[in-house]
Amino acid sequence: MNRVLLILSLFFLVCCTGKTPSRDAIPFLFDNDGIVPEVCLRVDEQEWNRLLEAFDQDHKTRESVHADMTFIKGSDSVSVQDIALSIKGNTSRRRPEGSTGEKHRRDSADWHHCHFGLTLDKYHPENGIGSMKRLVLKWFKDDGNYVREMYCYDLFRRSGVWTGPEDVYVRVRVQVGDDPAPAYFGVYQMYEPYDRPYLERRKERFGHSDGNLWACSFGATLTPPTLGRIGEEDQKGLLYELVSSGSGIDGARAQMTAFVRRLNTLEGQEFHDWIGSVMDIDLFLKTYAVNVGVGMWDDHWNNRGNNTYLYFSSLDSLEYKVYLLPHDYDNTLGTCHRVGVQTDAVLQDPFHWGPDDPAVSPLLPKILAFDDYRAIYARHLRELVQEGGLLTYESSIARIRSWQDLIRKYIPNDTGEDMELVDIPAYWGNHPEYRVLEDGGQNFFRAKVTAMRQALEAHGY
Q: What is the mean pLDDT of the chain?
């Protein structure tokens, strides 16, 4: 048997006859363990071509096709047959093979990095890996360090922000039909999406898992004029998309509407007490301190509600806790852009991260107008940048280098894209001087920590 056939045979053996993992599903999937697991996807050629055609017809398509998946970690593996495979992303959506109109080429495929969504239970409700029903495979778009979003989610967890998703490095292989060997797509980030199972896994912390979960997109500023664009998942043109609900769209819409109206109309002590009753203020301001610390400019405050998930922990229109869930942190750590009030996410004042006008963006300006809430925010900012803090250069670089050492040998891949670790921000950013690893004045962590310390001192903290 020649080498190619041997590789192919081993791939099919593992990917079609996987063992049940010897550990709980979530640690099995997401614990680091010094291993870079593999995700093997098997797609019939006809289904793969259908995915390509759907993308050609609509680059925002949510069409999915049938596939099989195996997750391999060390000597353990688990297979899930007949899952739904889709293309994910917003402005980063790409065709995974070839150019518009082309079908799969068995002997000369032109592979491209793209984000994949895996819905394990779409065709068979009993499918899943433990409680995990969905997974996202995300390539490191415009991140030559292969680390930005991984660092940010890790920092949320280390800081005690338990609402963030689990994630891990994986190696991705895609077998299309009878190709002589699976295509190796390289190192990806696999993360836990926000859905009902995510809520159920954190039920004890949230208190309830059957509340209303919203995906908020650009323009979802939580102001009254935006309330006309509320709807259910998969509808187009929405600002607030209902992802999960125990009551349905009518009750969820009424709750969101009541929240937005109170957020915008209550003032003074009445607002202070109300927002403190419907939000875990400490957790929220800790979340935002980390958000600002990593330089996330494409966020709720600065970029008009973009990249925001909100979860209301009960179905009552007035009695609930609402949580902001961190999402989409690839454009961080020195990748800056001229957006909102910002031109430099490293030097931007944390207390003026977005517009100060509550009529434009009410949530943060109205909360930070109160001395006690502002002091909580300042305390969490200070914790990140104090001597030995998690955002400091010494602490951050040690973690980043260990992750890069783990994945370095797996980066070369069959797409021919993103083939090595390169310490530069995104090419389209407006501050090409910032570096993640490079020591000196333009190192992101040194510059960011200095700027945050100066801002805290300027504001009297």
A: 93
